[in-house]
């Protein structure tokens, strides 16, 4: 009884501090001691849980993940107002303990100057520079031809395309990062894909949500998070080996891929003590690109095929537009997009419909922000959901 009273008092003090000491947070369900609102969330259908809470408390509400409050933005209007209209104020990255075993570098979980410079470099390097005399568009077209060839080998028999739909986007990233694509039977390539897929499954599990809410569990309890760390260590080791191979053959006048471009940037800024272009940042950035680009793209392709199968009338219109604009004797290119409004709309509708990452990545306020008559304190965890 004494323990419950102490914990309840601690929680009430925390709530008072949030409400009066740091401004007015949005309304939300009453949290329980220690665990917050976790019992009110269905981890198997987080989207539905957030929708129900939004109907009760509005598009901006407060949810306690463990003992820490998170401001949840639900729906298009609230997210646009925060992340687009007030993008700079909400550009911080939220607390994510499992990712913080490494320093806050890379693209996904870094903040401030590091995030801005690495993000800009990661976006512009493949887009504006035809590495190895091959543009990003060429690499995507080549991989698409390999993917179609693999599908033709099935001879229209029943087939689960999950594996090759995962190989294709991963190979495009390999072409950008390592210069070369891999055969779908290459063991190193299969190991890399296997680790990436396993990590996605672990990160999607309820246990990871528990670990992020109670970081002490990470160091002192067994669980799937340890497998996650082992897989990350494997990927880092593989990337480090590739980076060393690039250092030995680097030609600063003829960069072949993303690693070469990053190494050249490192050399250019070697005298800058505050440079974000370091070996550690290179390794984590490449890991982030694989993590963010492989599973998301393959899942979108898989669901896209499923939705086209379920809606043959839409498929017929897409097919007609492709035949009319592209034909059957060349690969599609980005210039075709403006002439294919229906196909473009279908692709966007697939992305909207499948709601790939319903809770998005955690954001944080970079300063105290007044948002819709609420005061969101600096570094407060903000979770956008659709």
From TrEMBL:
Annotated EC: 1.14.13.n7, 1.14.14.1
Listed under catalytic activity are: (5Z,8Z,11Z,14Z,17Z)-eicosapentaenoate + reduced [NADPH--hemoprotein reductase] + O2 = 19-hydroxy-(5Z,8Z,11Z,14Z,17Z)-eicosapentaenoate + oxidized [NADPH--hemoprotein reductase] + H2O + H(+); an organic molecule + reduced [NADPH--hemoprotein reductase] + O2 = an alcohol + oxidized [NADPH--hemoprotein reductase] + H2O + H(+); (4Z,7Z,10Z,13Z,16Z,19Z)-docosahexaenoate + reduced [NADPH--hemoprotein reductase] + O2 = 21-hydroxy-(4Z,7Z,10Z,13Z,16Z,19Z)-docosahexaenoate + oxidized [NADPH--hemoprotein reductase] + H2O + H(+); dodecanoate + reduced [NADPH--hemoprotein reductase] + O2 = 11-hydroxydodecanoate + oxidized [NADPH--hemoprotein reductase] + H2O + H(+)
User: Which Pfam families does the record cross-reference, listed alphabetically?
Assistant: p450
Source superkingdom: Eukaryota
Question: What are the names of the required cofactors?
Answer: heme
Keyword NADP among record annotations: yes
GO BP annotations, alphabetical order: fatty acid metabolic process; xenobiotic metabolic process
User: What is the topology of this protein in the membrane according to its UniProt annotation?
Assistant: Peripheral membrane protein
- GO MF entry, a single one: oxidoreductase activity, acting on paired donors, with incorporation or reduction of molecular oxygen, reduced flavin or flavoprotein as one donor, and incorporation of one atom of oxygen
What are the annotated GO cellular component locations?
endoplasmic reticulum membrane; mitochondrial inner membrane
- State whether keyword Lipid metabolism applies: yes
What the record says about activity regulation is:
The omega-1 hydroxylase activity is stimulated by cytochrome b5.
Keywords from the named record: Endoplasmic reticulum, Fatty acid metabolism, Heme, Iron, Lipid metabolism, Membrane, Metal-binding, Microsome, Mitochondrion, Mitochondrion inner membrane, Monooxygenase, NADP, Oxidoreductase, Signal
The leader peptide range reads: 1-21
Q: Where in the cell is it found?
A: Endoplasmic reticulum membrane; Microsome membrane; Mitochondrion inner membrane; Mitochondrion
Q: Name the principal localization, coarsely classed.
A: endoplasmic reticulum
The annotated pathway is: Lipid metabolism; fatty acid metabolism
Family note:
Belongs to the cytochrome P450 family.
What is its biological role? Answer: A cytochrome P450 monooxygenase involved in the metabolism of fatty acids. Mechanistically, uses molecular oxygen inserting one oxygen atom into a substrate, and reducing the second into a water molecule, with two electrons provided by NADPH via cytochrome P450 reductase (NADPH--hemoprotein reductase). Catalyzes the hydroxylation of carbon-hydrogen bonds. Hydroxylates fatty acids specifically at the omega-1 position displaying the highest catalytic activity for saturated fatty acids. May be involved in the oxidative metabolism of xenobiotics.
Subunit annotation = Interacts with chaperones HSP70 and HSP90; this interaction is required for initial targeting to mitochondria.
Name under which the protein is recorded: Cytochrome P450 2E1
* Organism whose genome encodes this protein: Loxodonta africana (African elephant)
């Amino acid at each position: 009884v004494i323990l419950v009273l102490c914990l309840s008092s601690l929680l009430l003090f925390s709530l008072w501090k949030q409400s009066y000491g740091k401004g007015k947070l949005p309304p939300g369900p009453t949290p329980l001691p220690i665990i917050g609102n976790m019992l009110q969330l269905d981890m198997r259908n987080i989207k539905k849980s957030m929708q129900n809470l939004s109907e009760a408390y509005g598009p901006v509400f407060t949810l306690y993940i463990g003992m820490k409050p998170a401001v949840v933005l639900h729906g298009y209007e609230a997210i646009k107002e925060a992340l687009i209209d007030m993008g700079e104020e909400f550009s911080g990255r939220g607390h994510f303990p499992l990712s913080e075993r490494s320093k806050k570098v890379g693209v996904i979980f870094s903040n401030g100057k590091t995030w801005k410079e690495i993000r800009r470099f990661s976006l512009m390097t493949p887009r504006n520079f035809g590495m190895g005399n091959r543009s990003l568009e060429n690499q995507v077209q080549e991989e698409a031809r390999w993917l179609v060839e693999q599908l033709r080998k099935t001879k229209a028999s029943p087939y689960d395309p999950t594996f090759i739909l995962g190989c294709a986007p991963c190979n495009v990233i390999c072409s950008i990062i390592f210069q070369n694509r891999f055969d779908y039977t290459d063991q190193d390539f299969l190991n890399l894909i296997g680790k990436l897929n396993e990590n996605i499954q672990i990160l999607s599990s309820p246990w990871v949500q528990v670990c992020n809410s109670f970081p002490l569990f990470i160091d002192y309890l067994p669980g799937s998070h340890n497998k996650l760390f082992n897989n990350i260590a494997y990927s880092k080791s593989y990337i480090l080996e590739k980076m060393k191979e690039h250092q030995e053959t680097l030609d600063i006048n003829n960069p072949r891929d993303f690693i070469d471009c990053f190494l050249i940037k490192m050399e250019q800024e070697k005298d800058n003590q505050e440079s974000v272009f370091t070996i550690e940042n290179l390794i984590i950035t490449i890991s982030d690109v694989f993590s963010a680009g492989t599973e998301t793209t393959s899942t979108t392709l898989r669901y896209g095929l499923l939705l086209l199968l379920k809606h043959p009338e839409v498929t017929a219109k897409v097919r007609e537009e492709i035949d009319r604009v592209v034909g059957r004797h060349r690969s599609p290119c980005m210039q075709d997009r403006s002439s294919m409004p229906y196909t473009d709309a279908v692709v966007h509708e697939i992305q909207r419909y499948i709601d790939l990452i319903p809770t998005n990545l955690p954001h944080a306020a970079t300063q105290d922000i007044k948002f819709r008559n609420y005061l969101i304190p600096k570094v407060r965890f903000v979770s956008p959901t659709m």
